Each structure stands twice: as C-alpha cells, then as structure tokens.
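Quarterly update from the structural biology core.
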Amino acid sequence: MKFLNVLILALSTTLFSTDINTVRKAYKEAAQDDTKIEAFNKLLTDVTKNDDMTLVAYKGAAITMLAKNESKIKEKKARVVEGVSYVEYAIEKAPNNIEIRFIRLGIQENTPKILKYKENIEEDKQFILKQFKNINSSNLRHHIKDYILQSKAFSDEEKSVFSGQ
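Predicted structure, tokenized:
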C-alpha cells in the first residue's frame, strides 16, 4: 500500500509539474498575442516563490502582462507592481540565471516609461550577451535568440552575432 501511495504521488508530481519548454512557448505566444495572456497566466497559477526561480520569474511576467487587460490605470499599475515583485525576487535569489535576466529585460523593454521600470535594461542586455554562449539548452538558446533579433534594446551589430547561430 505504501508503494502504491508513493507511486501515485510521484506520477502526479510528474504529470502536474510545469514543463519549462511549455512555459517558454506560452510566454512567447502571450507576448505576441494579447488573447493568449490569460492562458499563460493560468499555466503558472500554482507557482509560488518557493518554486524554481525561473518559473517564479515567468509568473511575474504573466502577472505583468495581465495589466494590458485591465481597464483602469490604478489596476494596471497594481498588476505591474505585483508581477515585478516576482521577477525581482527571482533575480535576488538567482542573479546569475540568464533566463530570469532575459525575462526582466523583456518586461523592462516593454513597460511604459511612466512606470519607471527600465533601469536594468543595459545591465541585463550585457549579461545576456556575455553569457549566451554558456547556455546548454538549445530550446532556451533559440528562445532568447528569437527575442534578441526582434528587440530594440540590441543594436544591429549585436543582432548580427546571433543571426548566424
């Protein structure tokens, strides 16, 4: 009986854990299509600050994206502040995680100037440029490269380094 309980627990944890490649894909889709923001957020509903810091950062990004769907300025700002708190917490706990830096860069590059959340763009950009070659996951390399090639934060010269990779 104990074996059966352990097996069920192990299977449920495996089946219900959030796959990072699925999250990356949902993030990209939500960034390109506002109608997919809710689904992206729903994917990360159960993530807490005790989970993997990359997932915590994606949860912050999802909450921040929800601000687009709010009708009142006060509610928009509250969503952004809440989402940013998750991202900054993840950066604090895992400052050398390139994916978390990439997430923060994407948020800072796309938030309105009025929110004054743009102070780490250059820092994160430089971190990504220096650490990109150390990424082992081909999925993550592709994910970040796609962002760089369309980003306004990167110069044409910087982008040209990635276009052949």
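Residues 1-16 have pLDDT under 50 and may be disordered.
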